[in-house]
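Table S2 (text version). Query chain:
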Amino acid sequence: MPHAQLLIGLACALATLLGGVLILRHREGQHYFFAFSAGSLVSVSFLDLLPEALQRGAVGGVPARALLGVLVGAFFLYGMVDRFFLTHHLHDDDAHGHPMGLVGAGGLVLHSLLDGVAIGVAFRVAPSVGVIVAGAVLVHDMTDGLNTVVVLLRHGQGEPLARIFLMLDAAAPLAGLGLAAAVPLPDRALAWILAAFCGEFLYLGAGSLLPETRKHASWGITAALLLGALLVATATSLA
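Corresponding C-alpha cell output:
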C-alpha cells in the first residue's frame, strides 16, 4: 500500500476514534460538519465518481444505463440498510442486550471497510480523485465512532464490547485500503464499483446528512454546505 494511502487510512482511523469525543463535547456544532460533508459527498458523486464510472464503462463495454441502474440500486439498498440496521434503532432503549445492537455495529464496521475500498479505488482512478474522496470520507467518519458506541450501549451490550467494536470500526478503513490495493481491477470492474459507491455517497450526502441540517436552518449551515460542494468542484476543475 502506498505511503500516502496508508497515512489516509490512519487518518480515517483517528477520525473514527476521536470524532465521537469531539462531537459529544461540541454537540451544538455537529450540524456544520453534517452540512459540509453533505455538500462534499454530493459534489464528489456527480463531479468525480459518476463521470469516471461512465468513462471506465465505455472503455470496458459496460452500458451507461446499466451503471446508472447500479447507482440507483446502491442508493436505495444503502438507504434500507441505514433505515433498518443502522440509524433506525438508535432511538430504541432496549437495555437487555438486544442482538440488533450487534447487527447495527457490524453494519457500521462493514460500512467503514467499504469506505476504505472506495478510497483505494478512487486512488486507482487518479490521485486527485483519491484525495477528494478521502476528504469527504474523513468528515463523515467523525460520526462513525459515536454511532458504533451508541448503537451497542442503547441495546445493553456494555462498554467492553463497545470498545472492541470501536477499535474494529477504526481499523476497517485500513483493511479496505489494503483490499483495494491487493486486488487487480480492470476498467469494467472499476466502472461497476465506482457506480455503486456513487449511489452510496449520494445517499449519505443527500439522503442521510442533508436532512439533519434542516433541523438547524441558518446561513452558517448553508455556507458549510456550499463550502463542501465548492471545494470539491474547485479540486476537480484543477485536477
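Notes on Table S2: The chain has one domain: 32-238. Residues 72 and 152 are 30 Å apart (CA to CA).
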